[in-house]
Fold:
Amino acid sequence: MKKCRECQYEINNNPKICPKCSAPRPANEKWKERGFEYKSKTTIAGIPLLHISFKYGPFFRPIPAKGIISIGHVGIGLINISQLGIGVISLSQITIAFYALAQIAIAYSLIAQIGLYVNSGYGQKVWDISELFAYYRCESINQYIYRPPENVDDGLEVGTLDEVDIDSVLLAEAVKILRCGRYREVHSILIFKNNKLVLEEYFQGHKYQWDASNYYGELVDWNREMSHFIMSCTKSFTSACIGIAIEKGFINNVHQSIFD
Structure:
């Protein structure tokens, strides 16, 4: 009978793994790492240019690859290819990186199945870290109480959600989410039913402008007095104007040539 060098458990012969603590070759006085490892002789600031490690220590603990380029089960490097890794550019199953292509990732920019990002993210389930934190923080403190729209003498009759049979509780939850800034492209929500304006809410979102080269947006608190860039909604106004023009006799019909 011998004893495991790690936990002193009595063992027979020389098993590959201790049945109690899982130490490899527990009958041996010492354990030498096993597996494959390569370190390039070229270094930068004392760090190998390339470190490949598929090596294991006691208890089958992976030995991390640490290099400018790291490759292994676990890796830390500027360029990292591993199952679990940290890097500036990382191709991994699970990773923390600046740029990441991974199954699960936290990164500045990423492509992942599941991920948290700062700048941009693409994948099945990815979230902007700042907006995610803002949403849950807002969710915990934001209490929305429905109030009928203000009568501003603009020709629209106002009413309440109950008057037009709309679930105010469900709609209040939607307004809470929009107030938290999770959907920056939703700037307002107005509901007009049975000839009554029954909901009018405005949110914080991006206001896009044209600088002769590209659109850019700044976060603003929207309100009813602000002009809004309506993009393709213009088509609805144009089609209405065409109908009015036909009714007033300025245009014969929709088949008349625009050159006329």
